[in-house]
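Lecture notes, unit on protein representations.

Consider one protein chain, 280 amino acids long.
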Amino acid sequence: MRELCCEKITETVAELCIRASTVLPNDVKALIDSAELKEKSPVGKSVLCDLRENYILAEKEKLPICQDTGVAVVFAEVGQELHITGGNFEDAINEGIRQGYEKGFLRKSVVKDPLRRVNTGDNTPAVIHTRIVSGDRLTLKLAPKGFGSENMSAMRMFLPSCSADDILDFIVETVDKAGSNPCPPIVLGVGLGGTVEMAALLSKKALIRSVDKRNADPFYAELEEKALERVNSLGLGPQGFGGLITALSVNIETYPTHIAGLPCVINMGCHAARHAEAVI
Protein backbone atom coordinates (compact mmCIF):
# COMPACT_ATOMS: atom_id res chain seq x y z
CA MET A 1 0.00 0.00 0.00
CA ARG A 2 1.53 3.28 -1.13
CA GLU A 3 0.85 6.47 0.84
CA LEU A 4 0.25 9.90 -0.67
CA CYS A 5 -0.05 13.03 1.44
CA CYS A 6 -2.82 15.54 0.73
CA GLU A 7 -0.22 18.30 0.69
CA LYS A 8 1.22 16.84 -2.53
CA ILE A 9 -2.25 16.69 -4.08
CA THR A 10 -2.86 20.36 -3.25
CA GLU A 11 0.49 21.37 -4.70
CA THR A 12 -0.18 19.44 -7.92
CA VAL A 13 -3.70 20.82 -8.40
CA ALA A 14 -2.46 24.40 -7.91
CA GLU A 15 0.16 23.87 -10.61
CA LEU A 16 -2.42 22.30 -12.96
CA CYS A 17 -4.74 25.32 -12.55
CA ILE A 18 -2.02 27.67 -13.77
CA ARG A 19 -0.70 25.39 -16.52
CA ALA A 20 -4.16 24.61 -17.91
CA SER A 21 -5.12 28.30 -17.97
CA THR A 22 -1.93 29.52 -19.66
CA VAL A 23 -0.62 26.70 -21.86
CA LEU A 24 -2.80 25.30 -24.63
CA PRO A 25 -2.27 21.56 -25.31
CA ASN A 26 -0.06 20.87 -28.33
CA ASP A 27 -2.79 18.99 -30.21
CA VAL A 28 -5.11 22.02 -29.98
CA LYS A 29 -2.32 24.38 -31.05
CA ALA A 30 -1.68 22.21 -34.09
CA LEU A 31 -5.33 22.31 -35.16
CA ILE A 32 -5.51 26.09 -34.80
CA ASP A 33 -2.34 26.43 -36.89
CA SER A 34 -3.74 24.03 -39.50
CA ALA A 35 -7.08 25.87 -39.52
CA GLU A 36 -5.32 29.15 -40.27
CA LEU A 37 -3.75 27.58 -43.37
CA LYS A 38 -7.06 26.06 -44.54
CA GLU A 39 -9.32 29.06 -43.93
CA LYS A 40 -10.26 30.92 -47.13
CA SER A 41 -12.08 33.85 -45.56
CA PRO A 42 -9.66 36.79 -45.05
CA VAL A 43 -11.46 37.80 -41.84
CA GLY A 44 -11.54 34.22 -40.60
CA LYS A 45 -7.85 33.76 -41.38
CA SER A 46 -7.07 36.98 -39.50
CA VAL A 47 -9.02 35.74 -36.46
CA LEU A 48 -7.12 32.45 -36.47
CA CYS A 49 -3.86 34.35 -36.71
CA ASP A 50 -4.91 36.35 -33.64
CA LEU A 51 -5.75 33.12 -31.78
CA ARG A 52 -2.32 31.71 -32.60
CA GLU A 53 -0.57 34.87 -31.42
CA ASN A 54 -2.72 34.83 -28.29
CA TYR A 55 -1.77 31.29 -27.22
CA ILE A 56 1.91 31.99 -27.92
CA LEU A 57 1.85 35.17 -25.82
CA ALA A 58 -0.15 33.52 -23.02
CA GLU A 59 2.39 30.75 -22.66
CA LYS A 60 5.37 33.09 -22.89
CA GLU A 61 4.05 35.62 -20.40
CA LYS A 62 2.28 33.06 -18.17
CA LEU A 63 -1.04 34.85 -18.69
CA PRO A 64 -4.51 33.28 -19.08
CA ILE A 65 -5.37 32.27 -22.64
CA CYS A 66 -8.88 33.58 -21.95
CA GLN A 67 -10.13 36.00 -19.29
CA ASP A 68 -12.84 33.47 -18.36
CA THR A 69 -10.76 30.99 -16.38
CA GLY A 70 -13.88 29.00 -15.71
CA VAL A 71 -15.08 26.45 -13.22
CA ALA A 72 -12.35 23.94 -12.38
CA VAL A 73 -13.49 20.48 -13.47
CA VAL A 74 -11.29 17.71 -12.06
CA PHE A 75 -11.23 14.09 -13.20
CA ALA A 76 -9.44 11.98 -10.60
CA GLU A 77 -8.45 8.34 -11.04
CA VAL A 78 -7.43 6.93 -7.66
CA GLY A 79 -5.48 3.67 -7.57
CA GLN A 80 -7.08 1.20 -5.16
CA GLU A 81 -3.64 0.43 -3.70
CA LEU A 82 -3.15 4.11 -2.79
CA HIS A 83 -3.68 5.37 0.75
CA ILE A 84 -4.29 9.12 0.98
CA THR A 85 -3.05 10.64 4.21
CA GLY A 86 -2.94 13.99 5.98
CA GLY A 87 -6.48 15.17 5.30
CA ASN A 88 -9.57 14.81 3.13
CA PHE A 89 -9.08 14.12 -0.59
CA GLU A 90 -11.64 16.62 -1.91
CA ASP A 91 -10.53 19.27 0.57
CA ALA A 92 -6.99 18.86 -0.78
CA ILE A 93 -8.20 19.39 -4.35
CA ASN A 94 -10.21 22.49 -3.43
CA GLU A 95 -7.26 23.93 -1.52
CA GLY A 96 -5.20 23.43 -4.69
CA ILE A 97 -7.84 25.31 -6.70
CA ARG A 98 -7.82 28.11 -4.13
CA GLN A 99 -4.03 28.43 -4.20
CA GLY A 100 -3.70 28.04 -7.97
CA TYR A 101 -6.29 30.70 -8.83
CA GLU A 102 -4.71 33.10 -6.34
CA LYS A 103 -1.11 32.50 -7.34
CA GLY A 104 -1.90 32.52 -11.06
CA PHE A 105 -4.01 35.71 -10.86
CA LEU A 106 -6.87 33.78 -12.44
CA ARG A 107 -10.40 35.18 -12.48
CA LYS A 108 -12.58 33.75 -9.71
CA SER A 109 -15.99 33.09 -11.22
CA VAL A 110 -17.74 30.60 -8.93
CA VAL A 111 -20.84 31.66 -6.99
CA LYS A 112 -21.88 29.91 -3.78
CA ASP A 113 -25.50 29.35 -4.75
CA PRO A 114 -27.13 29.14 -8.23
CA LEU A 115 -29.86 31.70 -7.36
CA ARG A 116 -28.32 33.75 -4.51
CA ARG A 117 -25.28 34.62 -6.58
CA VAL A 118 -22.57 35.53 -4.10
CA ASN A 119 -19.01 34.84 -5.30
CA THR A 120 -17.07 32.34 -3.19
CA GLY A 121 -13.98 34.52 -3.70
CA ASP A 122 -11.56 31.69 -4.48
CA ASN A 123 -13.15 29.76 -7.39
CA THR A 124 -14.02 26.81 -5.18
CA PRO A 125 -15.58 24.35 -5.02
CA ALA A 126 -14.32 22.41 -8.01
CA VAL A 127 -16.53 19.95 -9.88
CA ILE A 128 -14.85 16.64 -9.02
CA HIS A 129 -15.36 13.29 -10.74
CA THR A 130 -13.56 10.40 -9.00
CA ARG A 131 -13.00 6.82 -10.18
CA ILE A 132 -11.27 3.99 -8.34
CA VAL A 133 -8.87 2.18 -10.68
CA SER A 134 -6.17 -0.45 -10.37
CA GLY A 135 -2.66 0.45 -9.23
CA ASP A 136 -1.20 2.83 -6.67
CA ARG A 137 -1.09 6.11 -8.56
CA LEU A 138 -3.32 9.18 -8.66
CA THR A 139 -4.10 10.66 -12.07
CA LEU A 140 -5.52 14.18 -12.09
CA LYS A 141 -6.98 15.85 -15.19
CA LEU A 142 -8.05 19.45 -14.72
CA ALA A 143 -10.12 21.47 -17.19
CA PRO A 144 -11.01 25.13 -16.52
CA LYS A 145 -14.45 25.29 -18.16
CA GLY A 146 -15.52 28.72 -19.35
CA PHE A 147 -19.22 29.42 -19.62
CA GLY A 148 -19.46 31.23 -22.93
CA SER A 149 -19.28 27.78 -24.47
CA GLU A 150 -20.81 25.82 -21.56
CA ASN A 151 -24.01 27.87 -21.87
CA MET A 152 -24.44 26.66 -25.45
CA SER A 153 -24.47 22.97 -24.49
CA ALA A 154 -27.58 20.89 -25.12
CA MET A 155 -29.26 17.64 -24.10
CA ARG A 156 -31.90 15.51 -25.79
CA MET A 157 -33.55 12.17 -24.99
CA PHE A 158 -33.84 10.27 -28.27
CA LEU A 159 -36.03 7.26 -28.91
CA PRO A 160 -34.11 3.99 -29.31
CA SER A 161 -35.22 3.91 -32.95
CA CYS A 162 -33.19 7.02 -33.77
CA SER A 163 -30.45 6.78 -36.39
CA ALA A 164 -26.91 8.10 -36.62
CA ASP A 165 -28.27 10.78 -38.96
CA ASP A 166 -30.63 11.94 -36.19
CA ILE A 167 -27.64 12.42 -33.89
CA LEU A 168 -25.77 14.29 -36.62
CA ASP A 169 -28.77 16.56 -37.17
CA PHE A 170 -28.87 17.35 -33.45
CA ILE A 171 -25.17 18.20 -33.37
CA VAL A 172 -25.47 20.53 -36.37
CA GLU A 173 -28.67 22.12 -35.03
CA THR A 174 -26.99 22.82 -31.68
CA VAL A 175 -23.98 24.49 -33.29
CA ASP A 176 -26.14 26.50 -35.68
CA LYS A 177 -28.31 27.74 -32.82
CA ALA A 178 -25.24 28.69 -30.75
CA GLY A 179 -23.78 30.85 -33.53
CA SER A 180 -20.84 32.94 -32.37
CA ASN A 181 -21.61 32.61 -28.64
CA PRO A 182 -19.20 29.74 -27.85
CA CYS A 183 -16.24 31.57 -29.51
CA PRO A 184 -15.61 29.33 -32.51
CA PRO A 185 -13.69 27.49 -33.77
CA ILE A 186 -15.13 25.11 -31.20
CA VAL A 187 -14.48 21.62 -29.93
CA LEU A 188 -17.58 19.50 -29.45
CA GLY A 189 -17.84 16.77 -26.85
CA VAL A 190 -20.74 14.39 -27.47
CA GLY A 191 -21.92 11.84 -24.89
CA LEU A 192 -24.18 9.03 -26.07
CA GLY A 193 -25.86 6.41 -23.89
CA GLY A 194 -25.98 5.53 -20.23
CA THR A 195 -28.39 7.75 -18.32
CA VAL A 196 -28.83 11.53 -18.42
CA GLU A 197 -26.00 12.18 -15.98
CA MET A 198 -23.71 9.61 -17.62
CA ALA A 199 -24.24 11.16 -21.06
CA ALA A 200 -23.35 14.57 -19.61
CA LEU A 201 -20.23 13.15 -17.96
CA LEU A 202 -19.21 11.44 -21.21
CA SER A 203 -19.60 14.69 -23.14
CA LYS A 204 -17.30 16.49 -20.69
CA LYS A 205 -14.73 13.69 -20.88
CA ALA A 206 -14.92 13.84 -24.67
CA LEU A 207 -13.88 17.50 -24.52
CA ILE A 208 -10.57 16.65 -22.84
CA ARG A 209 -9.74 13.81 -25.21
CA SER A 210 -6.90 14.71 -27.56
CA VAL A 211 -8.37 16.39 -30.61
CA ASP A 212 -5.94 14.52 -32.86
CA LYS A 213 -7.35 11.12 -31.79
CA ARG A 214 -10.54 9.66 -33.19
CA ASN A 215 -12.85 7.26 -31.37
CA ALA A 216 -11.33 3.76 -31.20
CA ASP A 217 -14.50 2.31 -32.77
CA PRO A 218 -14.35 2.89 -36.55
CA PHE A 219 -18.13 3.41 -36.65
CA TYR A 220 -17.93 6.35 -34.25
CA ALA A 221 -14.68 7.61 -35.73
CA GLU A 222 -16.50 7.96 -39.06
CA LEU A 223 -19.44 9.64 -37.31
CA GLU A 224 -17.04 12.17 -35.77
CA GLU A 225 -15.63 12.99 -39.19
CA LYS A 226 -19.10 13.36 -40.70
CA ALA A 227 -20.20 15.62 -37.85
CA LEU A 228 -17.12 17.82 -38.25
CA GLU A 229 -17.70 18.14 -41.98
CA ARG A 230 -21.36 19.06 -41.54
CA VAL A 231 -20.67 21.56 -38.76
CA ASN A 232 -18.01 23.29 -40.83
CA SER A 233 -20.37 23.42 -43.80
CA LEU A 234 -22.57 25.81 -41.77
CA GLY A 235 -20.16 28.59 -42.69
CA LEU A 236 -20.21 30.28 -39.26
CA GLY A 237 -16.43 30.43 -39.29
CA PRO A 238 -13.93 31.73 -36.72
CA GLN A 239 -15.69 33.85 -34.08
CA GLY A 240 -18.83 33.71 -36.22
CA PHE A 241 -17.46 36.05 -38.90
CA GLY A 242 -17.93 33.48 -41.66
CA GLY A 243 -15.57 30.92 -43.10
CA LEU A 244 -14.70 27.25 -43.42
CA ILE A 245 -13.57 26.51 -39.88
CA THR A 246 -16.41 26.55 -37.36
CA ALA A 247 -15.15 23.54 -35.39
CA LEU A 248 -11.73 22.04 -34.80
CA SER A 249 -12.94 18.63 -33.69
CA VAL A 250 -15.98 16.55 -32.75
CA ASN A 251 -15.27 13.92 -30.08
CA ILE A 252 -17.89 11.27 -29.33
CA GLU A 253 -17.88 8.99 -26.26
CA THR A 254 -20.44 6.24 -25.68
CA TYR A 255 -21.75 3.97 -22.91
CA PRO A 256 -24.27 1.09 -22.80
CA THR A 257 -27.83 2.26 -22.25
CA HIS A 258 -31.39 1.07 -21.63
CA ILE A 259 -33.43 -0.59 -24.39
CA ALA A 260 -36.07 2.15 -24.10
CA GLY A 261 -33.97 5.25 -24.66
CA LEU A 262 -30.89 7.04 -25.93
CA PRO A 263 -29.61 10.06 -23.98
CA CYS A 264 -27.42 12.49 -25.90
CA VAL A 265 -25.56 15.47 -24.45
CA ILE A 266 -23.47 17.94 -26.43
CA ASN A 267 -20.92 19.87 -24.40
CA MET A 268 -19.51 22.90 -26.18
CA GLY A 269 -15.90 23.93 -25.83
CA CYS A 270 -14.37 27.10 -27.25
CA HIS A 271 -11.13 27.33 -29.21
CA ALA A 272 -9.27 27.58 -25.88
CA ALA A 273 -9.74 23.85 -25.23
CA ARG A 274 -7.79 23.96 -21.98
CA HIS A 275 -6.79 21.02 -19.81
CA ALA A 276 -3.74 19.70 -18.02
CA GLU A 277 -2.84 16.34 -16.50
CA ALA A 278 -0.51 14.97 -13.85
CA VAL A 279 0.21 11.51 -12.44
CA ILE A 280 1.35 11.30 -8.83
